[in-house]
Amino acid sequence: MFTTRAMFVTVLGRLKGVTDIERNVKFSDINESDYFFPFVTWAVENGIASGINETTFSPNDNITREQMAVMLCNFAQSENIEFSRLYRIEFSDNDNISDWAKNSVKILAEAGILSGIADGTFDPKATITRVDIAAMLIKFINEYMPDKLVNEENIDITENLEKE
After folding, report:
1. How far is residue 160's CA from residue 138's CA, in Å, rounded to a whole number?
2. Which DSSP category does 94 fall into?
3. Could you please report the per-residue DSSP string of 18-38?
4. What is the value of pTM for the model shown?
5. Is 2 strand, coil or helix?
6. Per-residue pLDDT in tens (0 to 9) along the chain, 164 residues
């Protein structure tokens, strides 16, 4: 199963501890009644995510690998997390990564958070599965946010992801 853009910002918002606070972001495709509304608006207001354009967030679109990399990198920056450079990784399809995503992909790959496909590519436009996102988030949390390790008190960070 794939993860939507709204699902991913919801997970990041829950990791941050975002609550239902009044927000002032206007996209034609999200409503205050949507479970993801506070998380999308929080992510946009804090520079973690942006819309597909000025009026559309596309919350139900599957998130691409490069979109996910940018959002996670922006989230880390908002948390003042500095990534280690453990690896030197160059994907064979680096030229296919959008200019706006190249730095985020590089940072996460060098930190060991993000990996490519078995054939040495990153496949930036491909949608990313929930399994792949979970594996990446486990690495990220273990290495850079150990105080947020999944335990009995925060095990529900993915609650409501499938409600629409």
Report:
1. 19
2. G
3. ----------TT--TTSTTHH
4. 0.87
5. strand
6. 899 999 999 999 999 988 866 667 789 999 988 999 999 999 999 999 999 999 999 999 999 999 999 999 999 999 999 998 888 888 999 999 999 999 999 999 999 999 888 899 999 999 999 999 999 999 999 888 877 665 545 455 455 555 44
